[in-house]
Write a structure and sequence with these properties.
Blueprint lengths: L3 H16 L2 H23 L14 H7 L11 H14 L18 H13 L10 H18 L7 E5 L2 H16 L3 H4 L7 E6 L5 H8 L7 E4 L9 H13 L3 E8 L11 H11 L2 E5 L24 E4 L12 E5 L4 H6 L32 H35 L4 E3 L8 E6 L13 H5 L2 H12 L5 E5 L2 E8 L7 H15 L5
Parallel strand pairs: 2-3, 2-4, 4-5, 5-6
Antiparallel strand pairs: 1-7, 6-7, 8-9, 9-11, 10-11
């Protein structure tokens, strides 16, 4: 390989050639100004605590403020910069410390640079030929993630996916193929009536993907959850037995490590024992809670995860990698390739001059695919495992502090006394409802409080916290902590804001 100086000399010659073109100067100036705008006004300017989380505008107002229609002719660079600023202005500021609305937030500076580098290189990761660094990088990162899960060194496989929902779909695909490999060529007509099982509190993607893949959402059978949100293992076994007696073929159970609302961790070990008894595939959806594996203090929440046949783990959630960064991991070394490969000879030729085992794209259902690994790898390099561990411990500490704090304040009612993850669920009870708990219309009135508070917080832009009903529980708030830049003072701010926004509400 030539020395670095030789490489740079060659690059300078190419650069000299393009410097003679006026287009380079024009585009370089625009890129530098655009990057300056992003850094100053988006990355840092909008992430201060004094800025707004969102500048609310109705759909018609946004259409008036931003020319959203493609046009016949080009606009100037000045106009493009104005458009950039307007798009940022009316977008939700997910990097803001007080955006705690979803299971993602913040902008990690190292992850952001990794994402920018990805976009600048514009790769598609399917063969070593066109993505030599990224095919190797993916395998190293996925191997380390499998090791953290507890799979034996050298076992298993994994892929980066466009979101946790698709990762859960890969689990269904692999589990079905594992039980009935003829499904790949003969389709659903060649197999028995397949049924799968998941908690009633599991992410909706499992049922959605069951419908998408021809199994049918009705054949994704709900298993009861207990009062803490965990899967009821006795109910699981009873429903597997009932399905068998009904002539169906159970093939998969999806457990959840970190449910979307309650943040509950299903008991993996007893679920795995049931799966082993009935010879069904165990998948663990750890899209949200998987990050806890990076912490010695909190990894016990996923005890037994190494028993799973497959795992979904989204670094863009609890580990704060930029969107999107999702993985599917499995202990079965060849199943992804066997299940999904099509051996397209125009892309995956076997007579190339290098080792074609590095052409990993055929095990994906995608062809063109982003290098989502780079931003996560770059973060991992910058922080180390110890940095991720500190991050996890900090967000768990913030969640505990916030929960303990609101327990001591008037107006807050807790949904779950001891949440396992960083989800904290509560009702805020305005003054007009205090002391009215025995009134027949109390729950009906309480149900209306959260939407009113949410409207006020969004229109002011002071914070963003989601709410939802759950079963018989009327609308309650769910605040999720994933941003380790927050501290205990911010926890008090959130409580103060709920009190300010909600105490005088009338329902």
């Amino acid at each position: 390989m030539p020395a670095d100086s030789t490489i740079f000399a060659a690059e300078v010659k190419v650069e000299d050639h393009f410097q003679s073109l006026p287009e380079r100067s024009k585009h370089e100036d625009f890129i530098r100004r655009a990057v300056d705008l992003l850094v100053e006004r988006v990355v840092f300017g909008r992430s201060t605590r004094t800025s707004r989380v969102v500048e609310w505008a109705a759909p018609d107002d946004i259409r008036k403020c931003i020319d959203l229609k493609p046009r016949e002719g080009p606009v100037s660079h000045e106009q493009l910069l104005v458009l950039m600023a307007d798009v940022a202005r009316y977008s939700v500021n997910t990097a803001h410390p007080y955006f705690v609305n979803q299971l993602f937030s913040s902008v990690d500076p190292y992850g952001l640079i990794g994402q920018w580098l990805t976009d600048a290189l514009n790769p598609s990761v399917y063969t070593f030929e066109v993505a030599p660094v990224f095919t190797l990088m993916e395998e190293e990162v996925l191997r380390e993630m499998r090791s953290i899960v507890g799979y034996r060194d050298g076992d298993g496989d994994g892929i980066f996916c466009p979101g946790g929902s698709i990762a859960n779909g890969y689990a269904i695909s692999c589990a079905r193929y594992f039980m009935h490999p003829e499904i790949k060529t003969k389709g659903v007509y060649a197999v028995p009536k397949l049924v799968m099982f998941t908690s009633e509190l599991a992410h909706y993607s499992t049922r959605k993907m069951a419908g998408f893949m021809g199994i049918g959402s009705e054949n994704c059978i709900n298993v009861k959850a207990d009062k803490c949100g965990k899967m009821d293992v006795e109910d699981l076994e009873q429903k597997i037995k009932a399905a068998v007696e009904d002539g169906c073929k159970p093939f998969m159970v999806t457990a959840t490590s970190g449910t979307t609302v309650f943040g509950a961790f299903d008991p993996i070990i007893p679920i795995a024992e049931v799966c082993k008894k009935y010879k069904v595939w165990l998948h663990v959806d750890a899209a949200w809670g998987g990050g806890a594996l990076m912490s010695k203090k909190h990894k016990h929440l996923l005890r037994g995860i190494e028993m799973a046949d497959s795992v979904t783990w989204n670094p863009h959630k609890l580990l704060a990698a930029p969107q999107q960064c999702s993985t599917f991991l499995t202990k079965h070394k060849t199943i992804l390739k066997e299940c999904h490969s099509s051996n397209a000879t125009y892309l995956f030729q076997k007579d190339k001059f290098y080792d074609t085992s590095y052409d990993t794209g055929d095990k994906h259902i995608q062809c063109g695919r982003r290098a989502d690994v780079l931003k996560f790898w770059f973060m991992w390099k910058a922080k180390g495992h110890s940095g991720f561990e500190k991050h996890i411990d900090k967000v768990f500490d913030n969640a505990k502090y916030f929960l303990d704090h609101i327990k001591q304040r008037n107006g807050f009612r807790i949904v779950l006394e001891k949440p396992e993850c960083t989800n904290v669920m509560f009702w805020y009870v305005p003054k007009c409802l205090r002391g009215c708990e025995t009134d027949p219309d109390y729950n009906e009135r309480l149900h209306k409080v959260a939407p009113k508070i949410k409207e006020r917080m969004i229109k002011e832009g002071c914070m963003m916290v989601t709410y939802q009903p759950q079963g018989e529980l009327v609308n309650f708030f769910r605040i999720v902590f994933q941003n380790s830049a927050l501290d205990h003072k911010d926890m008090i701010y959130f409580a103060d804001e709920f009190e300010r926004l909600g105490s005088e509400i009338m329902v």
